[in-house]
Amino acid sequence: MSGNTDIEGLIDLMARLPGLGPRSARRAVLHLIRKRGQLLSPLAQAMLTVSETARECLNCGNVGTTDICDICENNGRANGQLCVVEDVSDLWAMERSGVFRGRYHVLGGTLSALNGVGPDDLRIPQLRDRIDAEAVTEVILALNATIDGQTTAHYIADQLEGRALLTSLAQGVPIGGELDYLDDGTITAALNARKPI
Amino acid sequence: MSGNTDIEGLIDLMARLPGLGPRSARRAVLHLIRKRGQLLSPLAQAMLTVSETARECLNCGNVGTTDICDICENNGRANGQLCVVEDVSDLWAMERSGVFRGRYHVLGGTLSALNGVGPDDLRIPQLRDRIDAEAVTEVILALNATIDGQTTAHYIADQLEGRALLTSLAQGVPIGGELDYLDDGTITAALNARKPI
Ligand SMILES: [Zn+2]
Ligand SMILES: [Zn+2]
């Protein structure tokens, strides 16, 4: 405890970040106070900016600072390929690999009977609309190799059958693995070796 | 990569926090963007406040939002005991244990021939001044049980010999251990069993 209300409040908020507990939040705040000129003040400003401007792309679900994200706005990426991912972190992981040049569709999760997540809770209706609207010829299902991820992939494959070539990431994605934890090379290999469903 | 400059900038700053690498910084920022109303915006405000008001106590080196910290201002804690710690995180750890009712002196590190840290690089001259100014009768050296911590304790003991009772935390502090990693009970036991040097 610092005994100071403002500093305590900051520690409590920091401790709510994923990966930081109370101890690491205290250490982070002390570090920030020591570097208040070089780090704390710029970080506060960056957070303020992002909190005011960040939003989800109305088309694909990526996060950015415009209603339609840079990838959706980029006509060079309207190549008929649509890569379906669970979360924005997966989209970012794909982008880091640099191998995919089409567009994305972020579902916002997976179907889950257990958690009561149905198709309308995800961005699945919007996915159907985009097939025609954007003349999509191939849908790459880049979902995590978990049970829920694969259930969701099969549901989408059923829904879109006959409307586009359906492929999935192939070799390289380990059983139970999540995209965001893979190295770029593995993602590249899996995308290059994708196979029809 | 998010492809968005503001969001990328925020991720880069977050990755400079201790305990967060690039991946956990990305996850933290996505979490913040999802919870921008409940978490990101209050966190930005709290950081802004602390970046504008945080300072080191001119007397003891604790951090707070006033020139003299709450502990130094509290006359109820002018009981003649002064607890010397290496860092503010150690002071906070002592305060969490709730057992110490005197005041603190934060050195700001340890003596280190290797890193070229001498007495004047730490708050050691100010410590000497406080013995008389605050009628200190006991100096508790609560330094980490590392080689540099113990070297520093011996140097301070030499400097203050005959001017106050010198004690150190006793049982409970493991060899090579750091205060900030100890549970409150261990700190309490070590303080209660302190012994003259
Ligand atoms: Zn988009
Ligand atoms: Zn103070």
TrEMBL record, chains A, B:
The keyword DNA repair applies. A zinc finger (C4-type) spans 57-72. InterPro entries: DNA_Rcmb_RecR, Rcmb_RecR, TOPRIM_dom, TOPRIM_RecR. The keyword Transcription regulation does not apply. Residues 80-174 form the Toprim domain. GO terms for molecular function: DNA binding; zinc ion binding. Transmembrane segments: none annotated. GO terms for biological process: DNA recombination; DNA repair. Gene3D superfamilies: 3.40.1360.10, 6.10.250.240, RecR Domain 1. It comes from the Bacteria. Belongs to the RecR family. May play a role in DNA repair. It seems to be involved in an RecBC-independent recombinational process of DNA repair. It may act with RecF and RecO. HAMAP family: RecR. This is Recombination protein RecR. It comes from Tropicibacter naphthalenivorans.
